[in-house]
Amino acid sequence: MNYRPFAGLLFSAVVLFALFYVSINSASELTSVPAIADESGAVLIIDAGHGGADGGAVSVTGKCESEINLEIAQRIKLLAEFLGYKPIMTRETDDIIYPDEADTIRKKKVADTRARVELVNSCSGAFLVSVHQNKYTSASPSGAQVFFKGDCKELAEKIQSDFTQYVNFDGKRTAKPVASDIYLFAKTECPGLLVECGFLSNPDEAVKLETNEHQKLLTLLVIGNISNYIF
Ligand SMILES: [Zn+2]
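Above are the sequence and the zinc ion SMILES. Below is the predicted complex in structure-token form.
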């Protein structure tokens, strides 16, 4: 990768520590971290977009967006825990249990999104990070982009600037407010970020988005900046 040496060094150090941390904590211990706020009173809620009956966009590689979202969201969770936070995930697996009356894909999606809204709104001091992948009708667009809601424009701009420096290598994308028709953000009360990690319609980026190296870099830039600005 051609990101700068300092970032590479910092990145390697954090990843090594994170790996050490993960190795000394069993998976069951990690998933049973209590859903309480850290000392600042803020609660980080990590949302892996889509899941269950809703795979989201499909990559040119054939992989569903929901799976890539979950992989990156889980990395964000692990690194957040390593940094001392107690994040809450809106989903931990690709299986979602729906109410019996949700007997169509549309009803399942609605029920799931409502449950996520309820979870987020039940946490006081919540800060939401929703992980998604982008897709376009042509193959050329690429790059990670951050959208923000509430009082976190500066944070969003810093993450976007890091994306430009270490991931996108151009300044075409800017941090923007979350569109008002994104249900999860429209119906939740807390501030937050929607992170579109890259384009599944761009063959080069689609392949990169499935690699450990690229997912770890995105994770580090997102949670490293959240840690500096919010918590
Ligand atoms: Zn999505």
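The two ends are 30 Å apart (CA to CA).
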